[in-house]
Amino acid sequence: MIVPFVAILLTSSVSALSSPYHLKEFHPVPRGWKEISPAPGSHTLELQIALKQHRFGELETALYEVSDPTHARYGQHLSATDVHELVRPADETLELVESWLADYGVEPFELDWSPARDWVSVTLPVNVVESLLDTNYSVYRHEDGAYAVRTPRWSLPAHLHEHIISVQPTNSFFQVAAQKNTIRPVGQLDISEIASSFSSFDAETLKNPTVEQVCNTSLVTPLCLRTFYGTYDYVPQAIDRNRVALNNFLNETNNRSDIHIFLEQYRPDAVGFSFVNQIINNGSNQQTPDTPLQLENGQDAEGNLDAETIIGITYPTPLFAYNTGGSPPFTPSAGSPTNSNEPYGIWLKYILAQSDDKIPQVVSTSYADEEWTVPYSYATAVCQQFAQLGARGVSLLFASGDGGVGSAGYCYPGDDSSDIQFDPLFPASCPYVTAVGATKNFNPEVVAYDTSNGFASGGGYSNYFPRPSYQDSAVTAYTKGLGKEFAGLYNTSGRGYPDISAQGQRFATIWNGSLLVLDGTSASTPAASAIISLVNDALLAAGKPPLGFLNPWLYATGHAGFNDITSGSAIGCNTTGFPAKKGWDAVSGWGTPNFPKLKELALAR
């Protein structure tokens, strides 16, 4: 029996070398990028290779069943072991890929596998990768000064096409960006002045605050959000089981000194609260004063906003901050650091390896980029990993974007066409996540739009992902209602987003010892995540499973727990953009959360 086995291995190895290469994927270089020079052969790349998942169809079926309130399996989330078994590639796939890599000198110990072995990463010099993928890499420079080593096309041996979904970095020119707009400093913080200014509510008011008493459209605080959305009187009961998390990319972190000051002023009972930073792939956790360049770039303002918003609402629920390293800008050269700016893949590998008793029930992510800058193969592979988390009972909330239907200069497809087209964002466009838009004002709330900095809450339809079945009724009705308006500017059969919204304008944030007011779906996403986390707390305290993947429940019955937004639109691309209407719409989703109603609906399931 040994001889045939050896023969099989030899045949596999020979076929890897002799099988002709065919183009696997071409993705045009997006606007704003210019080819500068050939990439140095010694520059290293951390390749992320996504393999075909053997039984993804079964995983998707299970995901929808455990997330559908009308199904008998509702709430019976899968374990890590269950998920890994479903998505593990076929043995043939693993053998062929390992043999192909071995043909180019890659040793087994150099391979870093995901828990389900559906992704593998390996660090190699450009000259080896060029042979591996039958391509040529170049150095590209973006008009904002960022550099990347990329190639618009890559190939594989013919026999591997059905086994490998994506290889990056190849043609991924996306720049994972925090969805935040202009930071408007109020001034250097004077502790005594702020204390008298923002802690002026008397004890009687704080017993039963009203929106009129504690909310101000000039500065949105945790007290306002807790009062407006109905969480003020709720005391978390399952802090030993419930966990909420946020993502930091682009070397962002959460400054503990700033957060301490924020809590002193806006959530004094939480001053002693400590959260956990998980450092992934050499992510930043800088707690020292920022450099002049970091100050100029607003470093950590995003991270502070996320943490301050979540703690301000969910205290004392445990908070985990995932700081994932690996991002441009950098200047590629011989011997330069490894280019690894595929943070979603890196973070997903880490989080999917977490045990069921450690994985968070809610994750807030305020980052996104234009969908057309993300290769379809990579978007698909990442989206499928989001599905794995949803099947395990994790609610993933992503920002819907800050440019309406498209910011100026980005309302074009990724080629030289001059035809305007609306600009959807990824990962918000993935059907396995919950996308969050932004609102402003109180009683009534309207779609967020700020003329001072161009912030407009984002929304639209995916060009990559078809409309999921859970959206058939609501999204089809809205799309038909638009008639011929915006005809040809969007994909009428695509996954529509956002799914929900929350306040997202003029949030109080402490950064670098100063009080800032921030706009953006970077504010609304952690706010919505915090409220969903409190719903989970109530469920866990009652002995019920957490909500998990929200959308099937949300579109079936959960939408009754949201305040409908009917005024405003996703302004962008020199148009008014998709308008808010009664029911679901492509700028506010189902609206903003009403915690008492959501809790009641969730507990009654």
TrEMBL record:
Single GO BP term: proteolysis
Catalytic reactions of this protein: Release of an N-terminal tripeptide from a polypeptide
Active site: E302, D306, S522
CDD domains: Peptidases_S53, Pro-peptidase_S53
Cofactor note: Binds 1 Ca(2+) ion per subunit.
Positions of transmembrane segments: none
Described purpose of this protein according to its UniProt entry: Secreted tripeptidyl-peptidase which degrades proteins at acidic pHs and is involved in virulence.
Protein name: tripeptidyl-peptidase II
Lineage: Eukaryota, Fungi, Dikarya, Ascomycota, Pezizomycotina
